[in-house]
Amino acid sequence: MSEKKLLLVISFLVVLAIFCYGTFSFGINVASAQIPIIENSTGQDSLSLPDLFSKVQKSVVQVTEKDNSNELGSRLGSGFVFDKAGHVITNYHVVGAGSNSELEVSFLDGSVYSADLVGFDEFDDLAVIKVKNIPPDKLVPLSLANSSSLRIGDTVVAIGNPFGLSGSMTVGIVSGLGRLLPSNGNEENPGVGSSFSIPNIIQTDAAINPGNSGGPLINTLGKVIGVNAAIFSNTGVYSGVGFAIPSNTISKVVTSLIQNGSYHHPHIGIIGLSLSPDLSKQVGSNQTKGFLITSITKGSPAQKYGLKAGSITTTIDGRDVNVGGDIILKIDNREVTKIDDILAYLESQKQVGDKVHLTILRDNSIKELDLILGERPSQDKIDSSLNDFSDRIPPQDGDKKNPEDLYDECVSVAGKSFCDFLFKK
Questions:
Q1: Same domain, 198 and 258
Q2: Is 125 a catalytic site residue?
Q3: Which pTM value belongs to this model?
Q4: Do residues 187 and 270 share a domain?
Q5: Catalytic residue among 67, 121, 124, 125
Q6: What is the block-wise mean pLDDT of the chain (425 residues), using blocks of 10 residues?
Q7: Are 211 and 94 contacting, i.e. CB atoms less than 8 angstroms apart?
């Protein structure tokens, strides 16, 4: 074969090899494009459900309050180990604050220990108790996750003692965020509800029943995202809607409960209604968003710094409401469309003594006003007339309903264990 022909053959083979390689690579790229990589939405570190239970089972406890003055006997709930010092987090409505109460903490292996009440916050329905005379190796704390990173659809697990059935586990998703739940602060008039509410509540469809209260709602990493507190039900048992106090609230409150025994909530001192187009027409306002102040707590920052409450009484949805007061449009330049916006901002970003800037509408004119936040007073110091708060659950009709009707209404919304405590049953 001549040299010229040999070079031609070699050139042809080189071109053919390049072509085949390019075609092969293109085929791989096309195949890759047609088969997308699907990432696990719960993360690579997520545990299987059996492994998840194994990880946390030593940390979740049953909390028993034995009230010698209560003829109905013991109250049962759940809780979880918070630290190696023996602190356990639960709901305030599980342990109460009675001087006659004896507290016991039961672990899944059957061991039982006495406990002392360290501190409580009735407004966030949280309490910390401390287990006595417990070996250090029995304490397996659970860590708190960042609840602000939750998304609707995230998988969550509730572990507790529903109906006294220890070590029960249910699975669901985050079905709602930013809910508002009435707090546990009106013992002088039980069932009428507090003029305060807990913001940023997590809603879940994980099965929660009486006895789950105080137990952890955890993510698939085994970290606590909330404390189970109440259910929405017409029968007092699970109906697909449960509520949990978020972990970011827990981390903020519990530290103060351990150190001081209490938590001081920032407070403006206003009661009112969230504006809607229909309500705006009824009160004769052109403003369709904001928070209408109907009443102001005596001695509060709202009174001290000159906020104005309504002075004209009208009937809205069958209730007498004072209208004509200031309408809060913004707090620290954050738009206010409902009371949730104010409560969530104060609870997550502010403390007693901080300054806030309010933008209000008064007599159809925009006003700017600064005030210093005070400390939220106990419920018995609030004027009993300041119960006109439309955003609470459930809606209230004042003295038009007898106590049993109010109790039944409470159970249908917040669950039997929560309402048994409010009504001292």
A1: yes
A2: yes
A3: 0.72
A4: no
A5: 125
A6: 52 48 38 32 74 94 80 79 96 77 90 94 92 94 94 94 86 91 47 59 91 93 93 68 93 93 91 83 79 90 92 77 87 89 88 94 91 82 41 34 55 54 51
A7: no
